[in-house]
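## Example record

The block below lists the input lines for one assembly entry, exactly as stored, with component labels intact.
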Amino acid sequence: MTDSTALLTDRYEYTMVDAAIQAGTAERQSVFEVFGRRLSGGRRYGVVAGTGRLLQAVADFRLTDDELSWLSDEHIVRRPTLDWLADYRFTGRITGYQEGEIYFPGSPILVVEGTFAECVLLETVLLSVLNYDSAVATAAARVVSAASGRPVAEMGSRRTGEWSAVAAARAAWIAGFSATSNLEAGRRWGVPTMGTAAHAFTLLHDTEEEAFRAQVAALGTGTTLLVDTFDVPTAVRRAVEVAGPELGAVRIDSGDLASQVAEVRAQLDSLGATKTRITVTSDLDEYSVASLSSSPVDAYGVGTSVVTGSGYPAAGMVYKLVAHQDDQGEWVSVAKKSSGGKSSVGGRKHAFRRLSDSGVARAEVLRIEEHGSDSHPAPKHAERALHVTLAEGGVPDPRWLGPEGTKLAREHHAAAMAELPPDAFRLSGGDPVLPTVYK
Amino acid sequence: MTDSTALLTDRYEYTMVDAAIQAGTAERQSVFEVFGRRLSGGRRYGVVAGTGRLLQAVADFRLTDDELSWLSDEHIVRRPTLDWLADYRFTGRITGYQEGEIYFPGSPILVVEGTFAECVLLETVLLSVLNYDSAVATAAARVVSAASGRPVAEMGSRRTGEWSAVAAARAAWIAGFSATSNLEAGRRWGVPTMGTAAHAFTLLHDTEEEAFRAQVAALGTGTTLLVDTFDVPTAVRRAVEVAGPELGAVRIDSGDLASQVAEVRAQLDSLGATKTRITVTSDLDEYSVASLSSSPVDAYGVGTSVVTGSGYPAAGMVYKLVAHQDDQGEWVSVAKKSSGGKSSVGGRKHAFRRLSDSGVARAEVLRIEEHGSDSHPAPKHAERALHVTLAEGGVPDPRWLGPEGTKLAREHHAAAMAELPPDAFRLSGGDPVLPTVYK
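Predicted structure tokens for the full assembly:
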């Protein structure tokens, strides 16, 4: 693993810079925007995540000598471009939606300004981070609302790439999960970590009882015992015998959860373990979590579905040039005009969320900037400006970075969710809960 | 980014080790197996990928001082466990399917042997790598067969986590893709890289013609020009005017591909550019690639679908304890017995592919080892043994590592695919093309 993020990118970013340097167009001031054309899967809203990570990726986008040598050996770019790359660091400005914010089709989630060459190089890594992290956060937010206040832990590390797992744990926490099983997410991003035990631990020991005794001896009676390795009622009885009625929790990872949970609750209560919680973890997603809402479940563990975006593992955001200066320094708005739903809207956008008098979100309002004019579009009455400055002169604002930035994103997410109208929380597919309007 | 992989794991792996050390069971010799209970999405076969990466992850699983301090500060494990972890390195044996091999439900893809503690710690990171890389390789193999010999390039880096993108490029190449857009995959794993240009490059220039001239000047007439930014017929005419009939290729990224491709081919031919190739890249998956089989497409670029496993982004493999020694040194086969389709089969398995006289694969044959006996199950007539030694004494066999190992995996994949019966290449959902039998 390397600290540099400079080659986590598509070859064409480098060859476009190479061609633009030769053509004399590489230094044209440009504006790129990141947006999603639609919300995947008929989702009612999307959640922006990855901002803190992508700002770090921008700061780490410096070419090492090894990377430069490889680009040279492979003849990917020519000598003048290699010289330019050797000194590369992004010096432009990044504004965008605060991490944790809600977004809708067309929302200008990120605005990247600088020369064409310095901005275009960042395309792939910015999109990789935003598309994955936002897909996870969007799925996670749906699970959280389906859980109706019960805690949900992210346990999906084994179901996604090993570094994506760290990002997923972070994104799920921003979207309201209570904890993760992923230790690196704890160390790197300050996400609270949790864990229970696996079937292997029970199977290692000569009896289930010995396994429970070993776990309670090491982790205390507050631990969570896994009760479905052999026979659930037998295991629940043993668990309470071993740990006493102060046993923290039992975990069920298989079977018909609704009936099992009811039976285990009754059995725990009959054994006097009325405060022992029940955690369920078997291939849950937002729909199965919702279906357990009338069961006496105390906590959920969600794995595969959240780290894979619950059917939509990439958020579908794109990075598009919307304006640039020409040789006379005049700004030109640009857009792809072609067929197939892939056209874009030229010009730099500013974004606002219009709220009702009682603070309920009503619309996503976009205004296109008149480049060169002094007056930037400003929020009107009952509008909240959605863009914040993320990096200036190429330097990320430290507020958004590291564990503190992650915590801030989680708080901002909760506040933004609280503005949404009730229809946002319908799990069924449909239209975005807010319209995106240009005005 | 850190070189250590030790915290890319679930907290419970560490707390199970903690409890087992205290209980005196941590050093019991154990056998864990990785297998998939089913093939996702009614796929006819699965493709093993990630082996070369996971062996590197095992070698890099050493706790740094920072990691140990964090585990201590967070009170995740106790002092004796921290001392044990400070010296941790895996010393056991790993056997398994050669990377690129085909697998079926129940195939023992990886067999990890050592003490319980040293093996259980590896669970999460091994599964993260195998589940993601195999999901990508399985999707990629289907695209390759749908493309019927036409080259397919992987271009999905922006649609998955930034490090998963590197792994995906590698997995897709193993499964028969011809190249990737991802530069780090080129540098790290020796995957051939390729690229064209983005709409932004056309939009940056004052006219499409200027953009084409700039690209051809830098990259030569063999380059691929993107012709769908404005009007396709106009762009095709300009492209041939600028580059001449020796133009390498044009790329179409939107619209109704079947009709566009036919029109562009006719236009290119009428302009004398009969050797100019047509590359298409618009949200393709195995089904849309197959539907273009009668179109004069020369090459495909596939992004989102391949890096997200074409609807199945995790292969669903699990890591299960199947045998361990007891305090008397006797081997005990173990298995989870619970309900809900999550039971497992105890005992260490050996795997063979039964072939017909003409070399066509007929069955996945598994035999359970009598632990302690000297005779290991051996291949019978017309069977191919599927397990190879991947690591011995904790040290990965260098054959499987790096660019050379990746190339070997690609070659092995092609050979294993050539054994499959024709039904394997049906894209529709159905049963695995080979039965898995215990005998």
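DSSP finds 15 helices and 19 strands in chain B. The domain at 11-135+312-402 of chain B is CATH 3.20.140.10 (nicotinate phosphoribosyltransferase).
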